Amino acid sequence: MTTAKTFAEISTLRERNALAVKEAKDKGLRVVGTYCLYSPSELVVAAGAIPVMLCGTSQNPIPAAEKVLPRNLCPLIKSSYGFAATDTCPYFHFADLLIAETTCDGKKKMYELMGEMKPLHLMQLPQLQDDAALTYWTGEMKRLKSRLEKEFAVDITDEKLRDAIRLVNDERRSLKEFQDVCKHDPAPISGMDMLTVLHNRGFSIDKQAAIDLVDRLTAELREMADTGISPFKPATPRILLSGVPVGIGSDKVARLIEECGGSVVCFESCGGYKKVDPIEENGDPLAAMADRYLQIPCSCMSPNQGRFNLVEHLVREFHADGVVDLTWQGCHTYNIESYRLKKHVQETADVPFLQIETDYSESDTDHLKVRIEAFLEMISRPKRAGKNPVEPKTA
After folding, report:
1. pLDDT tens digits, 63-93
2. What total number of domains does the chain contain?
3. pTM higher than 0.90, yes or no?
4. DSSP string covering 188-251
């Protein structure tokens, strides 16, 4: 675990905010739960409500979900539904409205069932990124705006939207700067600790407080990097973890990479680097939001050249020695796309590539460990001369 003092505060953020969201509800504030990066938090903020991420990264509620959902479904979908069905996610419990999206067939049909538990607004996501899709998606933003205005009896003005965009852009800036500290070689924070920060801050009910907290941690990590403090040695293989979203509870592969001797320096997923690009703050705010959100390079988009370009860029920026592409069982879009991503990475960045298909359970841990150890052994590297003149201390 990192020695940065602020990390201890962030590591308990999820639990503390479970109490804070209840207190907010007791004061009459409204809560909107989201599952996906395509759900525009700016509209929720502009409506005077609190946007929170909902639970969906634990194996624990999956058996309950499998009483209704097929066993061969994606574990993220089953976990999300299981938390709702068992009422074991406090953020779901206190949510006044859920914002959902049609990123895949499994999720959109699961949302039909979830809509029987809570008021739910389903955004129909186009799966192209052209002008016609943008026009349609702008209409979906307007439809959500109307739903929020009606649900909470508010008027979402352009001024409120611009203020919300500035706040969420600052959040994106904060998250990018935090993740960018791992461009230092060796990284001043482990991938598991980085994942804890990325995961827990999503449950914060006060965006500005979470921004300030992450900024404080980033400043500490920069100082540690400058003085050579790191949990890794210079020769530790640097790994870019791409693919499906991961969080605490679904962190098996990230954990195994580091237990086997690697350093996860970047998460390409929608919980990591996919969410750092800002929204244009001038002009029509709804149109700017629609344009930014439609450009998210999720594997549900076809074609999805944006993701290939992003992974290539991140390999270079973070000096990755290899790419591990994670796919949840039953996630056909990421699974199929992995073939072309591997080809693109090997042709443009010339680094080794390993695809892993798994679920949330620990049943295949030993098998994955053997594969990951062999991959890391293949890409083990000598110390890069001149990259970091300070011999790192053990954190």
Report:
1. 999 999 999 999 999 999 999 999 999 999 9
2. 1
3. yes
4. SS-HHHHHHHHHHGGG-S-HHHHHHHHHHHHHHHHHHHHTTEESS-TTSPEEEEEES---TTS-
